[in-house]
Write a structure and sequence with these properties.
Helices cover 72% and strands 9% of the residues. With 226 residues, it is an alpha+beta fold. It has a 4-stranded mixed β-sheet. It starts with a helix and ends in a 10-residue tail after the last helix.
Length: 226
């Protein structure tokens, strides 16, 4: 039985409606799938970005913490250096005050002569030479001449050795020195400095740890004590 044109048109419309419906459902399915994939990718990207941001700020926090430690260390070191410098400056002032007071020793003639004799004898013990030259301040020459024989005699009595000692009248010690003597032998190749300043410096070096402890308290980092 042949279909009429109306039936044909009806079937065509029905088929077109079915195709449209199927296409619409397929499009919705594709859109849903795309939306799902988009959300998944978006979540993945957001998570990556969040991790990167967290890592960035963790690095920044560590850098800031490190900078704080470095700054604190620098401040601490600078503070220690300032303290050490202040202590050294204070010790220098004490040394300078002591050096100025050395001048008073030479003003006591009797005491200074005894001191010169002891310095000469000590220098002779250090040299143990047959020929020795003594240098002193020009104004101390008479005092050195006065005590020289006794000093040589003391040396000979203690060592059983002879020594010839002369005063250098061509090369005097500086008048700026507080006093004392300098002994030379073997044409100046051997020298013993026994000026008051050199003795003060030696004492300061030997007593420096004890002096620091007296002035600034005990050093907890000091391991050895003589």
């Amino acid at each position: 039985m042949a279909l009429s044109d109306a039936d044909v048109q009806k079937q065509i419309k029905h088929m077109m409606a079915f195709i449209d419906q199927e296409a619409s459902e397929k499009a919705e399915e594709i859109d849903a799938k795309a939306e799902e994939e988009f959300n998944i990718e978006k979540g993945h990207l957001v998570q990556q970005a969040r991790v990167k941001i967290m890592e960035y700020y963790e690095r920044k926090e560590k850098q800031i913490e490190l900078q704080k430690k470095i700054q604190n260390s620098n401040l601490l070191n600078n503070g220690r250096l300032r303290v050490l410098k202040a202590r050294e400056d204070h010790i220098k002032l004490l040394r300078e005050d002591a050096r100025k007071k050395l001048v008073e020793l030479s003003q006591d003639v009797a005491g200074y002569k005894k001191l010169l004799e002891g310095l000469i004898v000590q220098g002779l013990y250090q040299l143990i030479e047959e020929n020795v030259t003594i240098r002193c301040r020009q104004k101390d020459v008479p005092l050195v001449q006065e005590v020289l024989d006794r000093a040589v005699a003391s040396f000979k009595e203690a060592t059983k050795r002879n020594t010839k000692v002369i005063i250098d009248n061509n090369n005097y010690l500086s008048q700026d020195l507080a006093g004392g003597v300098e002994l030379v032998a073997q044409n100046g190749r051997i020298k013993v400095e026994n000026t008051l300043e050199s003795r003060l410096e030696l004492i300061c070096q030997q007593m420096l740890p004890e002096l620091k402890e007296m002035l600034f308290g005990e050093n907890v980092n000091r391991k050895f004590r003589d």
